[in-house]
Amino acid sequence: MHLFRACRSVLVLAPLAVFAAAVPAVAQEPPRPLAALGFMAGCWRGDAGTDKTIEEQWTAADSDVMLATTRYLDDNTGRTRGWELSRIVADSAEIVLFPAPNGVQQGRFRLMTTSTSEARFEDPSHDFPKRIIYRRVDARTLAVRIDRNERDEEAQEWRLERVACPARRQ
Q1: How far apart are CA 121 and CA 76, in angstroms?
Q2: I need a surface site. Which of 66, 70, 80, 145 has the fewest CB within 10 A?
Q3: How far apart are CA 64 and CA 45, in angstroms?
Q4: Residue 168: its pLDDT value, please?
Q5: Is the pTM of this model over 0.70?
Q6: What per-residue string of b and e applies to 135-154 under the rule 16 or more CB within 10 Å gives b?
Q7: Where are the beta strands (DSSP E) in the chain?
């Protein structure tokens, strides 16, 4: 009698095990180590000084890399006066910003502090800047500051307004 019950239990449980193996595992949310930098994502535009406009576009913070393009436009001619490619990379140890003005990498800025509205990157070995700070001022404004320290007289800060990302021209 006990053998019959044991066989019956196996016959009942075996199909359940096969069914459980056939059901796909619940998809896990992929890691998002740059999620706190999401406030930087999107397209931004602002005054960059005398007769100059800055445009900056950051990709989403939904991976382990964020990419940006920046260009400085001459307000009188509409021509590009300068440009920069940047990337923020997360690895198992840290998050680092690699700016590349005119395509040449300049420094390795480690993320030192971050919140839902500010990210401070530092490279003490770089001549200028030593710090790059992105700060969300409000829903439509992003401040970008480069300096040596809080009291740096040569510090530069730009206030960029959120703009629609440019569409591909047909």
Answers
A1: 33
A2: 80
A3: 25
A4: 66
A5: yes
A6: bbeeeeebbbbbbbeeeeee
A7: 42-47, 52-58, 65-74, 80-90, 95-101, 109-114, 118-122, 131-138, 141-147, 156-163
Query: What's the rounded Cα separation, in Å, for the pair 142 and 139?
Result: 8
- Encode pLDDT of 136-160 as tens digits: 999 999 999 999 988 888 999 999 9
For 72-121, write each residue's pLDDT tens digit.
999 999 999 999 999 999 988 999 999 999 999 999 999 999 998 999 99
Reading the block at residue 97, the tokens are: 């910003």
Where do we find the tokens 């053998």? Answer: 3
C-alpha dihedral sign at 124, 125, 127, 128 = negative
Instruction: Please provide the size of the chain in residues.
Output: 170
